[in-house]
Amino acid sequence: MAEKTKGQTLIFRNPPHIVAHASIVGPEESKGPYSEYFDLHLEDAKYGKDSWEKGEERMAANAVNLSLDKASVTPADVDLMLGGDLLNQLITADFVARDLDTPFLGIYSACATLVEGLTLGAALMDGGFADCVVAFASSHYQTAERQFRTPLEYGVQYPPYKQYTVTGAGSYVLGWLGGDVWISHATLGKVIDLGVTDPNDLGSAMAPAAAEIILQNFKDLNRSINDYDLILTGDLGITGKKVLTALLEEENVIPEDKLMDCGAEIFGYKEEYGSGGSGVGASATFFGSVIIPKMKAGEYRRVLLIGTGALLSALTVKQKESIPAIAHAIVAERIPGG
Amino acid sequence: MKNINKTTDEFNKIVKKEQPAVNKVSNFLKAYLVGGTICLIGQIFWELYMTLFDYSQQDAETMVTITMIFLGGLLTGLDVYDEIGQFAGAGSLVPVTGFANSMVAPALEYKQEGFIIGIGANLFSIAGPVLAYGMVSAFLVGLIKTLF
Amino acid sequence: MVGIFLKAFLIGGLICGICQLILDNTDYTPAHIMVSLVIIGSVFTGLGWYDPLKEFAGAGVTIPVSNFGYILTKGVQEAAEKDGLLGLFKGVLDIASAGISASVIIAFFMALIFNPKE
């Protein structure tokens, strides 16, 4: 049975296993250095459909179905699906769930949605309410760009620290048997807002929330950076990662090369992608397809995965609101003896 | 009690330090170069229309505007104008080619929502304010001139 | 003859350069810039400054979007002289008609022919 620390961290007495994972990425991500790690690749952003939104829906649905296949379970075996995306009304996740015979909870915390899903799923399982949970999330460059920014062909100049939304979907099957990695702890984040207003610099807006959750996790579990082999943030990008490093160093936490960011990595630090990737697709695909295999291979034993979400909408930006951010963390460990 | 306790000013200092700097001098020069070149091309068309096609000064000017709108729209459709914009900033935004771009880009973006509520409704989603304020301001200036 | 080309480049470029400085140093968005330019063009026309500028720099001031303010306002002024108050409404699109019609028609067909990038 789960246990809560005095702070914000949940300790799972029966850590749920990540039994299977599947990922799909878009055309740009397929040109990146991690292309071969991902299961499927989109040749075009519409994925053979007649709109970007339908393309994203097909992408997310295929990720879920592939993860179920890999785990050898059917939708009817799944007790609960937790899913979300970046579009209004969680429309991608809703439409994915429409086609599956499984109870569904739609969740949103922007790009922290995947980690929120894994946290809730693990908590429900350890609490005895489920034995098999699917957590999935997706983001899509074209659909997000037109919801949050200006039209793609509009000739405006973006600053060098702008991030590009990752087209990608990842789905994780949580169960009691199989897999190489389990979720041992989860730290629940607070909404943090240090007053960043530039919607082109989401990495900097999210970095304080990431720093906050890392320090909280260390405090609650009485751990230090030495207890982790890798601190993996979701989509701070290159600039946000630097800001996070600066914040941590002021608190005497020196991450050195233990800090990695899915968004910064996924496009391979190319200038044309500015500060790198953003969007929940970054952590949803990268953690499962790149990091879990490396954990299996023994490269990392214990990883702190931090989902970081910028809680803005196109309207709040126009109303000159600042950009609040949230971060949640889970501790993923290689299953002993596994 | 939060672990990170910083004011907006303190945090902005960190952000400014870590952010890659925007090179304002090179941005200015790029905008100047591209904007100037677009105007130069317009001037060349103007002379051509007057000498080769015998248009009056006024008609040639209008033909130049139409030509530049066509070129701006075409380069938007060919997926080139956004790249020029990323390089030139205001240099390709301010000329009338940029105005054409601001009409074609949203219309293309919403094409998949249909011809009427997609293309039709979005032609003016960015260009609308320019026309609205242009007309209102023209009216007010004319009103003041008429009254005084 | 060569002078007008050089002046078009220099003045047109200068307008764009100044707008870039405003974009880089203030919170102004591209929409603010475009609207401001049109209003400036309109006011300059009212003050009688735009015609001399056009005489001097040619396309250097007729290609930037401030020219919309110029042609809209010039149309209003000319019509107001002829028709009084009614001219304030009738004249708005007198000179601008070709430019605005062309932008709508051309933009429509471009959107029809092409597809956004994949």
Question: How would you describe the overall organization of this protein?
Answer:
The complex is a heterotrimer of chains A (338), B (148) and C (118). By secondary structure, chain A is of the alpha/beta class. Chain A has helices at 52-70, 91-98, 113-126, 141-148, 202-221, 237-250, 262-266, 280-296, 314-318, and strands at 3-4, 9-11, 17-25, 40-41, 80-85, 104-106, 133-139, 164-165, 168-175, 181-187, 230-233, 259-261, 277-278, 302-310, 325-334. Chain A has two domains: 3-160 and 165-174, Stage V sporulation protein AD (Peroxisomal Thiolase, Chain A, domain 1); 180-334, Stage V sporulation protein AD (Peroxisomal Thiolase, Chain A, domain 1, 3-Layer(aba) Sandwich). Chain A has nine helices and 15 strands. In chain A, strand 5, helix 2 and strand 6 form a beta-alpha-beta unit. In chain A, helix 1 (52-70) packs across helix 2 (91-98) and helix 5 packs across helix 6 (237-250). The longest helix of chain A is centred in the middle third of the chain and has 20 residues, at 202-221. Chain A is globular, with a radius of gyration of 18 Å. The mean pLDDT of chain A is 96. Chain B is 77% helix and 0% strand. Chain C is mainly α. Helix content of chain C is 80%, strand content 0%. Chain C has helices at residues 2-25, 30-46, 50-57, 59-62, 66-83, 85-90, 97-113. The termini of chain C are far apart. The model of chain C has no long low-confidence stretch (mean pLDDT 95). The chains are: A alpha/beta (338), B mainly alpha (148), C mainly alpha (118). Chains in contact: A-B, A-C, B-C. At the B-C interface, helix 2, helix 3, helix 5, helix 6 and helix 7 of B face helix 1, helix 2, helix 4, helix 5 and helix 6 of C.
